[in-house]
Amino acid sequence: MAFITALGSSVGASAEAFTIPAGATTYCKKNVSPVNAWWPNNGNTSGDGNVCAAGLTVFNNQLWVLIQNGNMGTKSSYKIKVLNSTTFAQEGEANMNGVDNTIDWSEGGSYYAALLGMTRMGNSVVAMNCPSSSTQNTKIYCWSSASSAPIYLFNDKIENRVDCSGNPRLNPYQGFGAWGTPDDGRIYMIATKGIAIDRLLVFTIKNKQTTSVKEIKLAKSLGSDWNNVSIDPMDDGTVWITSFNNTYGIHFNADGTVKEELSANGLGSIHGTGQKFFTFKGRKLSLNMNCSSGTTAPKLSLIDYTDGVANGKNIITDAQTVSNNDIAKQASPSAITTSNRSIDIWCSTASTPMAASSVSSTKTTAGLQPLPASPPRQGGRAHPRRST
Q: Are 158 and 164 in contact (CB under 8 A)?
């Protein structure tokens, strides 16, 4: 994995278009100090999907990285490294007491992933497991600090909360997104019926407890089984969802109807799922980790789609290709923080040799550069599944 850092700062108060200039993005490969000090086997790992960064978020000015090193269903395969957000040196580990020691389905167990992903939720960090079916407990963990053990926001069978009956049954899949806080928020997960990726589960969280789970039928399928999925909830209840080898990003309304879909402008190939959508200084922006060619050479892009989803433009001017390696359908976790005059971006290319060790952080070393005024143009880790 490679940690990548893209910077933006010193932009005016208007919604004027801008670029992030060359030299603002830095990288750190997994076999280079200081990442090799905490990456499995000192960074000397292949593109095996069982060794990857499964989640990434910024919390209390530190970078939390969920590392998988071994079978995805076994608790001992996972550690949450707490890093310096600028240097990527390890400063600690999160307490994993209480995370169930589940066993991978291929070994006769019932879970595809002991920890599916990780993200910040207000003043906490949350993560979710991935059971093989709605008949096993789905578990949402919540950390208030690295030193404290996580609590459950949810620990129940999905079939106890929504109707999972039928042939095929409704089963949890993957994809993980959070909005709000553990006292008043929502958590999102994709579900399937058979191999179609077209269901969204919404967990309503109040006072650190799940009060309801709702199933939403998506008007457009995200593809079929084995596609990795990324979920990014918005303040207005809508949600952006991306799936590997299927879409650059679909913006769904709260009822599952399609609001808009991002075009390929400024992006690489459709292979990739690391994606975040946000607004900064009146500009609509999308952070993406796609590939430059097929499923190889992961590429960081920050797309300005203010003039419409059909008119996106990459505003990071560096050559962002990280390596010539296959991302192997792994997610590319990312995190973003903004202030009045800066954007800080952290990304990981997930698992493959060079692409599996790069984190991205944007610390203000250069100013955002305005683009010339011009008229508008006309116009992301896969988990194997069984059907039950």
A: yes
Give me the residue label for tokens 């143009």.
377
- The pLDDT, as a whole number, for residue 226 is 60
Q: Which residue shows structure tokens 């203010």?
A: 306
CA distance 45 to 358: 13
More confident residue, 153 or 112: 153
Q: What are phi and psi of 327, to 5 degrees?
A: -85, -5
Per-residue pLDDT band at 357 (split at 50, 70, 90): very low
133 class by beta-carbon count within 10 Å (0-12 exposed, 13-18 middle, 19+ buried): buried
**pLDDT for position 338:** 76
Q: How many CA atoms lie within 13 A of 176 on its CB side?
A: 30
pLDDT at position 290 is: 72
Dist CA 282 CA 374 (whole Å): 17
Dist CA 284 CA 302 (whole Å): 10
The alpha carbons of the chain give a radius of gyration, in whole angstroms, of 19
